[in-house]
Structure prediction request, 311 residues.
Amino acid sequence: MSEDTDKRDEEPKGEEPRYEDLHDEVHDEGSRDEEEGGTLSGLMVHLIELRSRLLRSIVAVLVIFIALAPFANQLYSWLAGPLISQLPKGASMIAIDVAAPFFVPFKLTMLLAVVIAIPFLLYQLWAFVAPGLYKHEKRLVMPLLLSSTILFYTGMAFAYYAVFPIMFRFFSHATPVGVQMMTDIGAYLSFVSNMFLAFGAAFEVPVAIVLLTALGVVSPEQLSKGRPYVVVGAFVVAMILTPPDVFSQVMLAVPLLVLFEAGLLASRLVYRRRKEREEEDDYEMDDQAMDRALDDASSEEESLESKDRSE
Prediction:
């Protein structure tokens, strides 16, 4: 009995965990929990900020819609002006659906409210992404947002005042004999909305070129070499986005080419500034490397002098 007890006492026992090890393990778990908690809290802050920006955008659109709602019928009459002026005598627009005379003008009012609120919507987008941008990116984004808004409005105005009269005149004269041209108000709204979107997006060509140049995707030399392909592409895009008549296609293709040349000029300036900034960054990096080398050399000299004095 005593021998068994002695053997059990002589058996090696596992080392008990030290207080320092337990403390370190608890500290590591706590730090991991804090990191996860910080990540979740940061995500929640971004989500709350995004919700706030979206609510402000929705409220702005609703306020503009409520202000324009009493003038819904007048707004639709203004929109239908280019077509009505080209209709034959005695012809008019029609409403196929029973509720179309009521809902179509209000649909137009909602679309117009969104279009009018575009500057405010873009500002909300800018305010949300601005904290995560560098200083040079902030200097680039704000002019791009402003110019894209102006160009989009310009494209819509060009479609209404320059393209629609010519296009509807062509359609009215191309109507076969014995067929009376009577357009549904809902179909007309859908047609002109697509045209506004097409021309507004097409007028964003300079912004797209400047943005691609600033990101280093293309260079002005590459764009100049691809000019013949751009000419062909402009007419192909015009053929896809506009009705199948030559006049409206030319009215879109020619502005696309002019805007391409304007974007090319702007891209040369952006490209030159980007190269200058890169050269300045390289020069600063060389200066920093030289300073580090001088610091290392001076520290080595000081260590050798201290060693000599000690000897």
Remarks:
- The two ends are 69 Å apart (CA to CA).
- Residues 246-310 form the longest helix (65 residues).
- Residues 5-15 have pLDDT under 50 and may be disordered.
